[in-house]
Design a protein that fits this description.
Blueprint: E1 4-8, H1 17-37, E2 41-46, E3 56-57, H2 64-67, H3 71-82, E4 94-96, H4 100-104, E5 110-119, E6 125-129, E7 142-143, E8 146-148, E9 157-162, E10 171-178, E11 186-189, E12 210-213, E13 219-223, H5 228-232
Parallel strand pairs: 1-2, 2-4, 6-9
Antiparallel strand pairs: 3-7, 5-6, 5-11, 8-11, 9-10, 12-13
Helix pairs in contact: 1-3
């Protein structure tokens, strides 16, 4: 075999999960037919990413944990097809999976604090948190599970969770069943490891410290909290605007 080919597909994490899985299997079968008819060796098959988070998408009828297939379901469906006899050459093609979200989402947790609470005009309880869409951008499409970080009674009430930003779109949860949180209480936001640190921003509030918990429950700071000096590191003041701050490099 003097020719080499590869196949690559990428599924959307927000399309119907089983439909996405069936589409990928269709592509695998198509690849098998090509392998059986063309004299070429396939080096690898990249099934792409799109493996979904177990978080609940906004508007979903069932929680993500009940409606989203697990990684094992994807693995069984894909590998059972891949392991069927194929005329693929002297070696089985390398199977490549882009599983970033499936690996990292459940590994990330956000700790936050209630900074204020009040009653809205419609009677609903509102809690204002010290984090919002500036740190939790995925709150725009996920209904993240949020639990208290300290002991509480089992009595809960429907509440709206707002972030600290001066925008009415800064909503962490439009509705969540929680105990009566008071100012200073802390909460845990579950499964935030995917796409939040890559999309967080320094709007109004600087970004917090990031801590890694190892297998022995040891804590390691892997990113320090930001401060003013960090924000100013890349800033330069032109000489004609400075007042004793020195001249900035002149770009010619």
């Amino acid at each position: 075999m003097d020719a080499c080919a590869s196949g690559q597909w990428h599924g959307s994490p927000h399309r119907a999960r089983l439909q996405s899985l069936h589409l990928r299997l269709h592509n695998v079968r198509l690849c098998r037919r090509v392998l059986c008819t063309d004299p070429m060796e396939v080096a690898y098959i990249d099934m792409g990413g799109g493996f979904p988070s177990r978080n609940t998408l906004r508007g979903s009828f069932l929680p993500g944990a009940d409606s989203v297939p697990g990684v094992e379901d994807f693995a069984e469906a894909i590998c059972s097809e891949m392991l069927q006899p194929m005329s693929h050459g002297p070696a089985t093609p390398l199977l490549v999976l882009e599983t970033g979200r499936a690996l990292i989402d459940e590994a990330g947790w956000l700790l936050g604090t209630v900074v204020a609470e009040k009653r809205l005009s419609d009677g609903r309880r509102a809690n204002i948190m010290d984090f919002g869409v500036n740190l939790l951008f995925t709150a725009n499409w996920y209904e993240h599970r949020i639990t208290p970080a300290q002991p509480f009674t089992h009595h809960t009430e429907s509440a709206v969770l707002y972030g600290p930003l001066c925008m009415n779109i800064d909503v962490v949860r439009h509705q969540a069943e929680l105990p009566l949180l008071q100012r200073g209480d802390q909460v845990v936001v579950h499964h935030v490891g995917a796409y939040n640190m890559t999309q967080w921003m320094q709007f109004i509030h600087m970004r917090p410290r990031v801590v890694l918990i190892d297998g022995d429950s040891g804590a390691h700071v892997i990113r320090e909290a930001e401060d003013i000096s960090y924000l100013e590191q890349l800033e330069r003041i032109p000489g004609h605007l400075s007042a004793g701050h020195g001249d900035a490099p002149l770009i010619r």
